[in-house]
Design brief:
Blueprint: E1 3-8, H1 15-27, E2 30-35, H2 48-58, E3 65-67, H3 74-81, E4 85-90, H4 93-110, E5 113-118, H5 128-139, H6 149-158
Parallel strand pairs: 1-2, 1-4, 2-3, 4-5
């Protein structure tokens, strides 16, 4: 049985993330999605627990996916969950440079291979940072269709239209 770990901040999870999760769930016997607190990305909009809940709800239709939090090195979590591979989603070419460097580093320190999965062109423009910015400035209603319903509901509740 092959297991893949898909780590990321997912703050908030958007449809590009969901596409990557669904693709990975088709490719691997077991997929573990792991939202992290990334200090390099500033203060999160949603807690890790909230992100776990939103991702779990959005992926409820997949029976081979687990969602767990992560508070240590990705490769250590991968070892704990028995992951054979890491999965990283790509939206645009700029994502690849950073993710390739991380893939080489993770391979060097753990031997784990990274599989890159692109999201569709329909979702390639969606970034969590843009969803956060639009929502914070009163436009949460405008991101409907870019995020799963569970995420949209929480954004609309937290940031009512002005």
């Amino acid at each position: 049985m092959t297991t893949a770990l898909c780590p990321g901040s997912f703050d908030p999870p958007h449809n590009g993330h969901i596409e990557v999760f669904e693709a990975a769930a088709r490719l691997f016997d077991r997929l573990v999605v792991s939202p992290i607190r990334n200090p390099g990305k500033g203060e999160p909009m949603f807690s890790v627990e909230e992100r776990i809940g939103m991702i779990t709800e959005a992926l409820a239709h997949l029976d081979n996916v687990e969602v767990v939090s992560m508070t240590k090195l990705t490769v250590d979590v991968a070892h704990e969950v028995g992951a054979d591979y890491l999965v990283k989603g790509l939206r645009v070419a700029g994502d690849f440079e950073y993710e390739l460097q991380m893939a080489h580093m993770n391979k060097k320190i753990s031997g784990l291979e990274t599989v890159f999965l692109p999201c569709s062109t329909q979702s390639s423009f969606i970034a969590s940072s843009l969803v956060r910015e639009i929502s914070r400035y009163g436009g949460a209603g405008r991101v409907k269709g870019m995020v799963p319903d569970a995420v949209f509901d929480r954004l609309a509740e937290r940031f009512p239209e002005r």
